[in-house]
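REQUEST ID: PR-0412
SUBMITTED BY: lab tech R.K.
PRIORITY: routine
TASK: structure prediction, single protein chain
INPUT:
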Amino acid sequence: MENNLKIQKVIIASIFLVFLASCNSAINLKKQKEDPLQGVWQLNAFYTLANTDTIVKDFHKVQHKIYLNGYVLWNTDTDINGIDWSDYGTYTFKNDTITETLTSTSKSMKSDVNTYVIPIDFYKDSYKQVNTYYRNDTVFKNIEIFTKID
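STATUS: complete
OUTPUT:
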């Protein structure tokens, strides 16, 4: 009788551990699926500010970003000089910040910098990213607004 009780306790403990393990797997899967950036995004608006003055407004620029399972791919139309702009790499999204580490870029994007930390304002089906850079005594900001299309 005492052995039966021990066996029952071991079985119940085993079932409980299997249950906990399956719950943990389900939680990890849910976190992966809840990445709000996963999908295809289309640029809606592009602004460049020099200090606080808007120097470029573009609502016709074609650009797409695809975020999927930790990878990012983006492209845009060639510019008026026929130069291609595209990138591929990995990304993380934490605390309203995208960190993109680009491993393959078009010639126009080649640089010593391959990791970009980009703060964003995230909404239900859109987000705004702001890339800040400095040249001489001027603070430039490229502001891009994307809408999720898939």
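NOTES: The two ends are 61 Å apart (CA to CA).
REVIEWED BY: pending
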